[in-house]
Amino acid sequence: MNFANRLMKASMLSTISIASLGMGSIAYAQDATPQSEEAAADENVIIVTATKREQTLQEIPISVSVTSGETIEQAQIRDILDLKTVVPSLRVSQLQNSSSSTFIIRGFGNGDNNFGIEPSVGVFIDGVFRSRSASSLNDLANVQRIEVLNGPQSTLFGKNASAGVISVITRAPQYDFGGSVEATYGNFNAFTIKGDVTGPISENVAFSVDASYNRRDGYGTIVNLDEDVSDRNRWTARGQLLVEPSESLKIRAIVDYSNIDEICCVVSTLVAGPTAPAVFGVGGALSTDFFSYDIFLNRPPVNEVDNYGGSVQVDWESGPISVTSISSYRELKNFVDQDVDFTSADIVNEIRDQQVETLTQEFRITSDFDGPINFLLGGFYFDESVKQDSSLTVGAAARPFFSLLAGNPAVFNGVEAALGLPQNSIFSPGLLTSEAYTLDNTSWSVFGTVDFEPIDGLVFTGGFNYTKDKKDFALSQTSFDELGQINLVDAFIGIATGGAVRNRAQFLALPAANQAALAAAATSAANPFLGLAAFQFQPPFLNIPNAVEDGRTRDDDLSYTLRVAYDVSDNINAYFSYATGFKASSVNLSRDSRPSSTDFIRGTRGSNFLAPPSAILDAGLAVPNLSTGSRFAGPEDAEVFEIGLKAQFPGVSVNLAVFDQSLKGFQSFLFTGTGFGLSNAEEQSVRGFELDAKINPAKGLALTFAMTYLDPLFDSFTAGPLGDLTGERPAGIPEYSISTSATYTHEFGGSGNRLITRLDFNHESNTLINNGLPTFGANNFKREVNLVNASSTFALSNGLELGLWARNLLNDKYILTVFDGVAQSGTVSGYPSQPRTYGAVARFKF
C-alpha cells in the first residue's frame, strides 16, 4: 500500500472513530484554548500537556522541563541534538552517522545503532510517536514548545517511555494571516533558511506551511581525500490543515517530508594500538590528533535519510465529555555507506539499507466534570515493520594488513595450503557478509487515569496502562570469510586423523582415550592453527527462526501510577508519586545476534566436536565457530518514587523534584569491536534531584537556573559484555548537570524596538565515559562539558529582527564517546565535540 493510500486510511480511521461516538473535545489540541491564551498572557505561566490535558507548569504534578519557541529562536537550537544545552536531565549524542543518536534521561537510554532496539526515551511530535531517532532529527521549524518529561511515563505514553518522553508541539494553523522568514549565515560557510505562513481558507478552515533548508561545510577534513566531513545538508517541509465545521469539532491534518544527505561524522583516534604500524605499512594512515578534526578514510561516508508521514487528529466535544483520536502513518528510509575501520587503508566497509513503516492509532475519552471525580481513558495501537539489508566488504588492503599483523606476508598462503583452501582466498577483496533482517512488531494498550479531588486543592490520581506486545523477527546472513568457516580445533583433528574424522559423529565414535588425546593436542600448542583465531572475524551465521529458535517475543505488562498532589497555597504546590514503567523486549538485528546459552553450549575454542549436547547441536544446526550471545534482550521494568515542590511568586518560580528510580532488566547495548552485544542488566538505579528556577529581578531581565544531580549504581549486572559490573557506578552519567541563562530585553522607549541579549551556560561534571571497552579493557577516558552560548537580537517594531549568535563560544573541547577500533585490537576511537560555531541571522515576522 503506498503512502497516500495509507494516509487516507489513517484519516478515515480518525474521523470514523470520533463520529461513531458522536462526542469529542479539544482536550489535546495543540493550539491554545481561550483560557490558555489568557493564562499565557502572564510570562511566568507556561501551559503544558504532559498529562494529555492542558495545565500550567506549576499545576502539573510531574517533573517536566519546557523549552519555548522563543528560547529555541534566541539560542539557535536547530534540532533535538541541541536541546541538551538547556535541559540538564537530557543527554543527546550523535554517533557515527547522521541518523544514529542516543537520547538519555536521568542516565537511562539506549543507542540507536540497531533498529531492533526500542527506545527508552519516547519522542513524540504533535502527539505522534517517532519510533527511531533518525525520524526525529529534522530541523525544528514553527515549534511552539518542547516538553521533556523526566522519569517513567509508561502510564500515558506506553511501552517506549520507560525513561522519559520528549514531546515536541508545533504551532497549529491560525485564522489570522501571518508568518515568518529567517536566514542565517555562519562560519564553515553555514547557511540556513526557513519560513512559515499561516492563514484562513474560509471561515472555519485554516492552513499553515513551513519549510527549512540547512547547509554547512564540514568542520572536519578527510585529509587524504581532501573532502569535508561532519557537514550539514538537510531540508524539511510540512503542511497543515485545520478544519472546524462546528464549535465542538476540530480536525487537524499534518503531512511532512524531510531529507538528510550528509557526510558524517568525524571519528578520531584516542589510542593508536599495536595494529597502527600495520595500517601505515599498507600505505594507510589514521588520525593522531584527536581534536584537530583531521581524519583519514578510504571513502567519504554516505548518510541518506528520507523521513515522511502524516497524521490526522480529531477532537470532538460534547458537554463535559471529550474525545480525541490521533491516526498516523510514517515511513523512514536510512542508507549508510561507511568506512568502518576509520583509516585511509581499504580494509573493511559497511553498507546498511534500512526501511521502517509505522502505523499508529490513539483514542482517548476525557471528562471535565464539576464534581470531585474526573477521568481519562484511552487505547493505543502500534504496527511497525523493519527491514534491513546490509553487508561488510573487504578492501584491497585487508589481506596485506592482516598478513603484517600475523608477522609474515606469506602466512595466509601457507594456511590455505594446509587447510585445503584456494590460494589468495583468505581476506580476498569482496563481500565479507551479506545480511537480511526483518522485524514485525504489533502492540496495543489500554490506559487511563482517575483524579479524585475530595477538597479543593487536594487531588488523588490513579493511573494504569496494560500493554501486549508481539515481535516476529527473521535474520539471515551469508558469511564469505573463508578462514571463519573452519574451526581450527576440528580442522586439526581432521588432519591428525588423516581425514578419517570429518564430523562430530565420527569423533564421538572413537574410543574415549583417542578422543581425549586428540582433544588435548588440538587445544594446546601442538595445534599450529590456534593463533589464527584472532583473524576469524565473521564465522558462519545461524539463521533464525530455526527448529530450535522461533524468532519471536511475546510481552505483556501492567504499568501504573499513584499520585497525590496538594495546593499548599495559591503559590505553592506539592506532590508525591509512585510510578512504574515498561519497555518491551528488543531484538538484536545485527551480525552479533547469537543463540543463548540455554539453546547452545559452546565447545572449547568453538569446537563442535568437543561441545556438550545442546538443543541446537542435537538438531544438527550448529555451524563452525558458533558462539553464544543474545538474539534479544528481555523487557525493562522501571520504578520511581518522586516528591516534588512547585512554587510561583511574582517574578520568581522554583520547581524541585527528588527521586529514587530503578530499572530492572536494563537493556545494555555495547559495541564490541566487530559487532554489538545486547544483554539485560539485572538492576540499575539512580537517586537524585532536579531543580529548575526562574527569576525576573528587574524589568526586562530573566535569569534561569536548572540543575540535575544523579547518583547511579549497577545494583546487579553480572553477565554483560564487560563482565560483572555489580556495585560499580554506571559510566557516562555526570554527577551534576547545570543549565543557566540570562536574557535581557532592552526596550527603546515607546518605539516598540527591542534589543534581546541572551547568554547561557551548560555544564556536565567530569565523569568516566564508559566502564571499559570489550577489547581495550579498563580505561580512564573522561569528559567534562562547559558550553557557553550567546546571542543578541535587535527586534524592530515592524517585524524585522537582526542578530548575532555563537554556540560553544569558548570552543570547549571534550570527548563524546569512545569505542574499540574495528579489527584493530588495542586501538581506541572516539567522537570529538563540535567546535565553535557563530553567525548572523535576519528574521522577519508578519
Automatic annotation (TrEMBL):
Q: Does the keyword Phosphoprotein apply?
A: no
A GO BP entry is: iron ion transport
TonB-dependent receptor plug domain boundaries:
57-165
Q: Which residues form the signal peptide?
A: 1-29
Where the record annotates domain TonB-dependent receptor-like beta-barrel, the positions are 280-809
Q: Which GO terms describe its cellular component?
A: cell outer membrane
What InterPro entries does the record point to?
Beta-barrel_TonB, Beta-barrel_TonB_sf, Plug_dom, TonB-dep_rcpt-like
Record's keyword terms, sorted: Cell outer membrane, Ion transport, Iron, Iron transport, Membrane, Receptor, Signal, TonB box, Transmembrane, Transmembrane beta strand, Transport
Tell me the domain of life: Bacteria
Q: Where in the cell is it found?
A: Cell outer membrane
Query: How does the record say this protein sits in the membrane?
Result: Multi-pass membrane protein
Question: Into which family does the record put it?
Answer: Belongs to the TonB-dependent receptor family.
Protein's name according to its UniProt entry? TonB-dependent receptor
- The organism encoding this protein is Sphingorhabdus profundilacus
